């Protein structure tokens, strides 16, 4: 099932649904799938529906075509900004990417080509990044007198370390898909965009097959790890396990393992 949302001025976002997997496609090939305020606002509306739908177990974010995931913000829009619009630009992107990062289901960025500026920032808000071999990654704002404004400075340091992140941002240089894999920015590479699409479907189906409550608990544990003392980690882990052992899905998972059969999770 596919649904298209027009964001004005030819700016399109397509949402595809296959079973319990929703795919958000930025579909602006003429702009290399660049993001704008209207596009981000429409994404917020789409996220409202995703957050409310208990049938969605995985969200995939990708771009249309073989050459560009998201090639950053829309420069034609940026050049005409007033300070008030610049603030709105930062606000709408920041809040959108934080919603994606905190979504209760796993998120996959399927990077099909250029992943620059806001494109890298939205990809870093996802839990898992996979890419085609032709992908290029960067925060090149230095080249146009701008700064990464959608949380990229913090997320990139967290993912690949302060030294490598600083080099990417201060030089404005792109890195290849192989370098992104070596740096830990990307989880898996595929030879072509077609192979990436097939691999994304396979990975999404795998994630959708896990127990939803366990998936949510794991995401919460990952997100709340920074700054905890060993005793706090112990207490958190014990509380999560104690809760999961009260769920139907946990009992199903343990029983299915002992009975050597596939588990059938219901989200309860």
UniProtKB/TrEMBL annotation:
Give the Pfam families listed for this entry: ECH_1
GO function terms (MF aspect): enoyl-CoA hydratase activity
Query: PROSITE patterns, from UniProt?
Result: ENOYL_COA_HYDRATASE
- UniProt keyword annotation of Lyase present: yes
Task: Tell me which domain of life the UniProt entry assigns to the organism this sequence originates from.
Answer: Bacteria
Q: What is its EC number?
A: 4.2.1.17
Q: Which reaction does it catalyse?
A: a 4-saturated-(3S)-3-hydroxyacyl-CoA = a (3E)-enoyl-CoA + H2O; a (3S)-3-hydroxyacyl-CoA = a (2E)-enoyl-CoA + H2O
Report keywords, A-Z: Lyase
In terms of InterPro entries, this protein maps to: ClpP/crotonase-like_dom_sf, Enoyl-CoA_hyd/isom_CS, Enoyl-CoA_hydra/iso, Enoyl-CoA_hydra_C
Record carries keyword Lyase: yes
Its family remark reads: Belongs to the enoyl-CoA hydratase/isomerase family.
Q: What is this protein called?
A: Enoyl-CoA hydratase
The species is Brooklawnia cerclae
